[in-house]
Automatic annotation (TrEMBL):
Signal peptide: none annotated. This is Galactose/methyl galactoside import ATP-binding protein MglA. Keywords: ATP-binding, Cell inner membrane, Cell membrane, Hydrolase, Membrane, Nucleotide-binding, Repeat, Sugar transport, Translocase, Transport. The lineage of its organism: Bacteria, Pseudomonadati, Pseudomonadota, Betaproteobacteria, Burkholderiales. It comes from Tepidimonas charontis. It is found in: Cell membrane.
Amino acid sequence: MPTMTPTPRLQLHQITKRYPGVLANDAVSLQVAPGSIHAVLGENGAGKSTLMKIIYGVVAPDDGVMLFNGRPVHVRDPQQARALGISMVFQHFSLFETLSVAENVWLGLQGALSLREVAESIAVKASEYGLDVDPHRPVHSLSVGERQRVEIVRALLTQPQLLILDEPTSVLTPQAVQRLFGVLRQLASEGCSILYISHKLDEIRALCDACTVMRGGRVSGVCDPRQTSHAELSRLMIGSEPPALPPHRAASGDVMLEVRGLTLERPSPYGTALRDVALQVRAGEIVGIAGVSGNGQSELLEVLSGESTAAPAGSIRLRGEDIARCGPVARRRRGLHTAPEERLGRAAVPSLGLAHNLLLTRRDAVRRGGWLDLKALRAQAAALIERYGVKAAGVDAPAQSLSGGNLQKFIVGREIEARPSVFIVAQPTWGVDVGAAAQIRAQIVALREAGCAVLVFSEELDELFELCDRLYVMAQGRLSPSLPVAQATVEQVGAWMAGLWAQEAGHVAA
Ligand SMILES: Nc1ncnc2c1ncn2[C@@H]1O[C@H](COP(=O)(O)OP(=O)(O)OP(=O)(O)O)[C@@H](O)[C@H]1O
């Protein structure tokens, strides 16, 4: 007898995947209808990315069956997945740094088109979906947000029947998120199914028509997110609602970090020049830098962390001392710690164990004469893993074996635990589940309460409004005047993100 429902686009039965020490997927079953936008929700390390990689042929399951359009398939590699009509946008990008956007995409298409044709189709696709991507830019010059747009355009170019997105909006602005949702709804209405991994419950409820929740490698629930409240989703995922932030304390202290007259030519032809940037961060306050990525944030972050020492002498002061020409080690010695936005590569050595990754910025286990106290180092890593709820096979688990959110918790924790007097962090809760995000924010607030001066770069306005006492907005290499969060509105900050603060003379607060 013919069935009333259409053949599912994707069916997974009892998919199991073991890694040393963890059962990443434990008999997972999941079904996605044609044209459905299906959310996969779960705390960090729940097994979402592993499951998606199995569907896309990056990881082979130990057990289980996959059907695509009703037919059993064994997807051996991503090339075969794409041939079937499955495309994926990864959480960690897979672009070659030294190549241009078009060259990267062209490589993936295996010579089906000329490079010029690829560049043209990228430009067409990008403008069709309102994604700002220049095919000729070299990838190394792109910010994280820009790279993500490239990945999305690249996936769309393959005309997928099933598109997998692993936290696609984590670095997009609110406007760009809305545009992306428009794109995804359009794709779905054309019959393309979408698997959508996200930690943002509001997005899932606004976008998705089905939701599979995972916990500890298993499916812990299936629901219609449009009919499920924020609190219920939270509970399904982490067993409770995330705690609210402790209240703000009023007084702030001395100026700890001061930037004045910071003008800097662009470090590469595609970088952003900094123009007369000025900011202050006082002890006991959290100051945010809002703005769309690619507007000079990475350049500012580099000169603040000491990764670049190109800032003019006297333009960056720590407690009044000129540190513009100090490297990162000298800055850390003076109490300034930075957690950059790119976790794998800049903040962690992917192949190195977690304990050894502590050594990148922490010297607590280094004894006189450079002797390394391995026992102390491992104990330090173990304590961090425990305190921040990092899911990892142990202190020697290589950084690259951690799920995105868990590595994030480890790195942010590593810097917070250093008890810095000035802490600079970019996208502190990128890819982190709601429970862990609340925990990281609470730790940042605790740092402030202990008198630390905190500077947070984030593209998430909600996060900045929740965390910060004051905000600056960055646009085209310039920094707006500072704005107390209590007086700021999303609309105003949005307008400032387009560089429009100059027109609001008189509105400026100190
Ligand atoms: N290559 C690997 N080697 C060893 N363990 C791995 C590997 N990849 C993933 N794991 C482990 O499998 C588990 C599931 O990880 P996965 O990346 O699928 O989680 P996730 O739900 O996507 O998390 P997140 O939200 O943080 O991205 C984690 O405990 C992780 O440490």
